[in-house]
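Researcher: First entry.
Model:
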Amino acid sequence: PDVLAVRDAARGLGAVTALVTQPYRVRGGRAPGSAARQDAAWAEIVTALSDSGLPLVQGGRSNGARVACRTARQVGAAGVIALAFPLHPPRRPGQPGKSRDAELRAAGTRVLVLNGDRDPFGIPEPDDATRVVVLPGETHALSKNPAAIGDAVARWLGTLPGIGSRPPSVSGQVPPR
């Protein structure tokens, strides 16, 4: 529900969207594998989709949020939407050196993070480029209030240059300029 809420919010602003299943999931795998292979596959997908000339805002949930942040600079993303960004690995909140904060900060662009206040993977801190929205009562699943997710995403997207000023699209088609 959280990913679909993001899609709907973006479409409401006239964006063209694509939902992508990560390659390891397509293969039936349960674990994502190496970060380098995930990032290469993501960059290949984004390159195939990016001929529109529109600003690219990429996003993902959990591991996909990490991929979106790690690849944002490489693919020239204008922003990243990170749903349930897992700040630390599961069951290891206090282990030093296990933070994934550097992946978030390496995006090199503006990032919107949406996390639940009950997320066992932790909640990143905001900074100049990173807006963090903490949703009360939500866990890592972010499944209880998709409307709040959509609202936060629509407000944030509206602040990005070239995004909020586009008229809504019809049936996912790009309106003429």
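Researcher: Second entry.
Model:
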Amino acid sequence: MSPAAGPRRRPVVDAMSSELLAGLHLDELRSYRQRLEAEEDRVSYWRRLVHARLDLLAAESASDHPLSVDDLVRVLGDTGTGGTRRALVSIRAAEPLPELPELAAMWGDEVDPRDPEQVADVVERLTAAEQQLTTYRRALHERIDEATAELIIRYRANPSAALALIPEG
């Protein structure tokens, strides 16, 4: 996990009711939480793309030859912590992604990996975009946690409400 990602989220144990969510019906609350999680998936996908672009720029800049397939596997698979990126991604290629104009421009730009000024400019813009995505992702996590806490409170008060989630077989 990168330092920018922040601490891992912890399970909600001591749930506190949310004034903002208390007025939602249970189905609305579940739907709201699902929409937040879908948005978090999209934001995480963009963050992974930004990190991959940064990793590729670094590898291309440090190499005196074009990257091979083996180089790409190493660069895009290594997290720098000894682990590998193996997260399952629920985003489908045909799904629209949130528009991030700065990122679209950065992807369309040809960057000469031998030009330190070009690389520095793109790295600076990608880093700023990654920080923006990370901040937004943290806010989404807070809202997801708030919705989860509200669901926990409601299920504790009425355990049979959770039965609606079990598919009829």
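Model: Note on the second entry: Residues 1-5 have pLDDT under 50 and may be disordered.
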